[in-house]
């Protein structure tokens, strides 16, 4: 990698909200080692996460993401989930995205599963992003600190913090990247592909109908 590319990557802070995720982190942390910094926004883990600077935060993904961003020193912020892996080409995708500082960028969604159900879900997510401009947090989010701060950052919500932020961004300030973020399909394998997808859709619908995120979080956890 050329010195100029390395200098650009040094401006990036990766922020990962965690809760008892030490067993998930090593592959992702290894991928991110060349970035400027890695911050683990911990909501009170009982394990011992390693691989980045530990930031203590109130439990709840929105609060953890906000705390990580507040502690970050980079000019660009990369928000990722602990069970995500990035496919080859992700570094070039980030560098290309940095040429559009007025937009937030997200990865294309993929699952680490070879089943037909996984491919159907990937197509459904692509449709949701294309028609509704609604990427979720498991697709990552990459944006300049200036844009993030102009929005007011993540809200301290127990659920739907990702949807709430991208709705504030709006379609005109969202752009997909060429690389894919591969998410663990374990939740769908355990909960049932159709059942989990239906409940995710129901949760989103209830949020759009005005149900408070605190009630949605209880509903989501009850499954």
Plain-language structure description:
The strands form two sheets. A five-stranded mixed beta sheet has the order 3-2-1-4-7. The chain has a three-stranded mixed beta sheet with strand order 5-8-6. Helix 9 (193-208) packs antiparallel against helix 10. The protein is globular, with a radius of gyration of 17 Å. It has helices at residues 3-9, 25-32, 61-71, 90-97, 116-132, 145-151, 161-169, 186-191, 193-208, 213-222; strands at residues 12-18, 37-42, 53-56, 76-79, 84-86, 104-111, 141-144, 174-183. The chain has a single domain (3-190), classed as Spore Coat Polysaccharide Biosynthesis Protein SpsA, Chain A. The chain contains ten helices and eight strands. The N and C termini lie far apart (46 Å). It is of the alpha/beta class and 223 residues long.
Structural class: alpha/beta
For the biggest β-sheet, the strand order reads 3-2-1-4-7
Largest sheet: 5 strands, mixed
Task: Tell me the number of structural domains.
Answer: 1
- The portion of residues forming beta strands comes to 15-25%
Write the topology of this structure:
Layout: H1 3-9, E1 12-18, H2 25-32, E2 37-42, E3 53-56, H3 61-71, E4 76-79, E5 84-86, H4 90-97, E6 104-111, H5 116-132, E7 141-144, H6 145-151, H7 161-169, E8 174-183, H8 186-191, H9 193-208, H10 213-222
Parallel strand pairs: 1-2, 1-4, 2-3, 6-8
Antiparallel strand pairs: 4-7, 5-8
């Amino acid at each position: 990698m050329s010195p100029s590319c390395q200098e650009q990557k040094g401006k990036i802070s990766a922020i990962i909200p965690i809760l008892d995720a030490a067993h998930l982190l090593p592959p992702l942390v290894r991928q991110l080692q060349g970035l400027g910094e890695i911050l683990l926004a911990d909501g009170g883990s009982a394990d011992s996460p390693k691989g980045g600077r530990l930031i203590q935060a109130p439990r709840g993904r929105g609060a953890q993401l906000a705390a990580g961003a507040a502690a970050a020193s980079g000019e660009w912020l990369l928000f990722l989930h602990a069970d995500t892996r990035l496919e080859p080409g992700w570094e070039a995708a980030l560098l290309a995205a940095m040429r559009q500082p007025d937009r937030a960028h997200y990865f294309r969604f993929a699952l680490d599963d070879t089943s037909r159900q996984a491919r159907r879900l990937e197509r459904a997510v692509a449709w949701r992003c294309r028609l509704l401009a609604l990427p979720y947090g498991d697709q990552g989010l990459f944006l300049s600190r200036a844009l993030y701060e102009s929005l007011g950052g993540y809200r301290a919500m127990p659920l739907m913090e990702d949807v709430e932020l991208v709705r504030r961004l709006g379609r005109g300030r969202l752009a997909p990247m060429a690389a894919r973020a591969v998410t663990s399909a374990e939740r769908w394998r355990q909960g049932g592909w159709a059942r989990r997808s239906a409940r995710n859709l129901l949760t989103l619908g209830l949020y759009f109908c005005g149900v408070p995120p605190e009630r949605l979080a209880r509903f989501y956890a009850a499954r």
